Amino acid sequence: YVHFHLISPQVQRSAESVVLLDIFVSILSLNLSEPAYGADIAKLEYKLVAGEHGLVIRVKGFNHKLSLLLQLIIDHLSDFSFTPAVFEMIKEELKKTYFNMLINSEVLAKDLRHVILEHGKWPMIQKYQRLMKGISAESLLSFVKAFKSQLYVEGLAQGNIT
Asked: Could you report the per-residue pLDDT of 72-115, keeping only the tens digit for each?
């Protein structure tokens, strides 16, 4: 198991930044689905998660090929690109996801509790409102550039790793 947490101060600046991180992670996962198919066949697993302070990369599997999968993820992260159609599709999916979270009372209560207890946590309603106002592809590209320019990386490796 290898986990990396890419932390950036850009993430918690505004509700828009949190939404942009969600869009970024979704597009990155979509971009990786085809090139990482071989890794899935070889029983290597990966997961990209939009965390509270940045991107979490989790990979697990046999250690002799794990570095190749991690390198593939890093390559796609450094050369991030997308088409306008993919951007619009991910935005629409995220709108549905946020809306479904807002109409679920348990999720909404948990979100409110986190907003009260955690400094810098943006409520789901503000993220949904920001997404509904509209987010441009240019703002995503500038966010990704700023995100990558101010990274702090934490890592954890567990198992037979050299």
From this structure: 999 999 999 999 999 999 999 999 999 999 999 999 899 999 88
Tell me the C-alpha distance between 46 and 151, whole Å.
Answer: 21
Whether 162 is in a domain gets the answer no
Distance in Å from the first CA to the final CA of the chain: 12
d(CA 90, CA 84): 10
Q: Is 133 part of a structural domain of the chain?
A: yes
pTM: 0.91
Q: Give every CB contact of residue 13 below 8 A, 6+ residues apart in sequence.
A: none
User: Rounded CA gap, 103 and 150, in Å?
Assistant: 35
In CATH, what number is assigned to the domain containing residue 86?
3.30.830.10
User: Residue 113's beta-bridge partner residues?
Assistant: none
E strands, the chain, in order? 2-7, 45-50, 54-60, 152-157
Q: Are 63 and 56 in contact (CB under 8 A)?
A: no
